[in-house]
Amino acid sequence: MAKKGFMYGAIAGGVVGSVAALLLAPKSGRELRRDIADKTQTVSEHTARIAGQVGDKTVQMAKQVGSTASTAAVKVKDTAASVVDNVRGWRADTKETLEETGEQVKDAVEDVKDKGQELIAEHREELHTVNN
After folding, report:
1. What pLDDT, on a 0 to 100 scale, did the predictor assign at position 127?
2. What is the pTM for the complete model shown?
3. Membrane-spanning regions, if any (predicted)?
């Protein structure tokens, strides 16, 4: 944006300077009008050339931005897919681990129950023996 303002200022300054130089030079009216027409043509050609360059640069930058945006979009899509796959894998692994842990806990509870019943049976015999 600052480059554009500078360019407009440079063009305006060039035009004002050229006109001032022409008006202050000691020439006849016909020579002065011819010089003004020549300088106006020169400034016009220069302005058209600069405008063409700005247009070319703008197109080039637009293509570059578009290309960069497309590349970034592909990278984001790939990364998101990778994250989703990882989360799904973690969920499956976690579910499997929880199921295995649950089975181990059930087995341990059954073992404790069995051992408890064995101990109760042993103590009943001892109590029965002591009471008789």
Report:
1. 66
2. 0.39
3. 6-25
